[in-house]
Design a protein that fits this description.
With 377 residues, this protein is an all-alpha fold. The protein has one domain. The chain has a two-stranded antiparallel ribbon. Strand 1 and strand 2 form a beta hairpin. Helix 6 crosses helix 7 and helix 9 packs across helix 13. The longest helix has 29 residues. The radius of gyration is 22 Å and the shape is globular.
């Protein structure tokens, strides 16, 4: 099948309206949320630094930094860049299919804006919203971008879970030991991820079942008040938006069936992204001269850390991530190196994405991308 024919097939299957579609209003993340999140992040950074100064001797910290193996630190930075690029490729593949003039540099920009707002907002809720807003400024239709982001999210989640399952199979004894050590974290984290996977599959195949559960659930939650604060305002509007999201997400399962080559490419990018993410922690471990745990043991512990931070509602899972790293990796780090390990790990996975992502918010000349059009014949 030719590229033109594939594009036409993708257009016909994509969840879009006609060319006269009115743009959907996308609400940006509020300035109040960003301000409060930024202050919270500064508080975490200052608190972590103060904790290190109070716990470790300044001279010993200086000695550890002097003797650190910065080749591994550079390797961690390379892994971080690979992770970003892999995510950008994951988004660029369907974007390029639907918008042939799409530039990869713009896909990188959209990715980094997502990184910025994912880390600035609780439960990473702001990233996709700001990505849709940014793509809209370059002429992309909201229905298209929501569809593409849904597909990207679906592929990423499947590949991350698949990679985790493979690791657990080959490191089952180590996983079992960690599960016994951190039973509560394990049960909560595994349960949440099983529910998430179940929801993803159900939303893609049984949208009617999802809506039958969602309607009474949203109505019930809307009646709950904490003082004068209602957990859900305007439940009918929320339900309507939720139903649209489920319908859109349901269409992505159909796209996966009809565009196997495209999804395969996205899956490879998603797998590279997952491996690069886990390799960052191993790089931090080796930077400070630690030995005894191999790469797969580090990945298994990192899996537990992911389970922990997934239930922390603060921006970037702040405080929970630092505490979880100390709890799970503390026993295998050399004495005196764990606090610097936490700091380096958070620089890679939290502070650098925010700083670099903020640079991509600087206004630049915007190229309006043209959408693929079906032949009239």
């Amino acid at each position: 099948m030719s590229q033109k024919a594939e594009n036409q097939n993708f257009e016909e299957n994509n969840i879009v309206q006609n060319d006269a579609e009115k743009p959907t209003e996308v609400k940006k993340t509020s300035k109040k949320v960003i301000t409060l999140s930024t202050l919270f992040i500064l508080f975490i950074f200052i608190g972590t630094f103060a904790y290190m100064m109070n716990t470790d001797d300044v001279n010993s910290l200086g000695e550890i930094l002097r003797t650190a193996d910065y080749k591994w630190a550079l390797f961690g930075l390379i892994c971080l860049i690979i992770m970003w690029l892999a995510e950008a490729v994951n988004m660029h593949i369907p974007l390029k299919r639907l918008y042939p003039t799409q530039k990869f540099t713009n896909s990188v920009k959209i990715t980094m804006i997502g990184q910025l707002f994912n880390n600035l907002t609780p439960f990473s809720t702001g990233g996709q919203v700001m990505q849709v807003y940014e793509m809209g400024k370059s002429g992309k239709r909201t229905s298209d971008t929501l569809s593409i982001l849904s597909m990207k999210f679906l592929v990423q989640q499947i590949m991350m879970m698949l990679f985790t399952i493979i690791v657990l199979i080959f490191q089952f004894n180590h996983f079992q030991y960690l599960f016994n050590q951190y039973l509560v974290i394990g049960i909560i984290g595994v349960s949440i991820n099983i529910l998430l996977l179940t929801f993803l599959i159900a939303a893609g195949t049984k949208k009617e079942v999802i809506m039958k559960i969602a309607k009474p659930a949203i109505k019930l939650i809307s009646k709950i008040k904490i003082g004068k604060f209602k957990l859900i305002k305007e439940p009918e509007e929320k339900l309507k938006n939720f139903e649209k999201s489920v319908e859109n997400y349901n269409e992505q399962f159909k796209l996966i069936k009809n565009h196997k080559i495209m999804v395969l490419k996205m899956s490879i990018a998603g797998l590279i992204q997952a491996i690069a993410y886990y390799a960052i922690t191993y790089a931090v471990y080796k930077t400070f001269g630690n030995a005894g745990a191999n790469f797969w043991e580090i990945v298994t512990r990192q899996t537990f850390l992911v389970l922990l931070v997934s239930i922390v509602p603060t921006p970037g899972a702040g405080l929970g991530a630092e505490g979880g790293f100390l709890l799970i990796f503390g026993p295998i780090f050399k004495q005196g190196t764990i606090n610097l390990g936490i700091l380096f790990w958070r620089i890679y996975t939290f502070y650098l994405p925010i700083l670099i992502g903020a640079l991509f918010m600087i206004p630049t000349k915007r190229l309006i991308t043209k959408r693929f059009q079906k032949d009239k014949t």
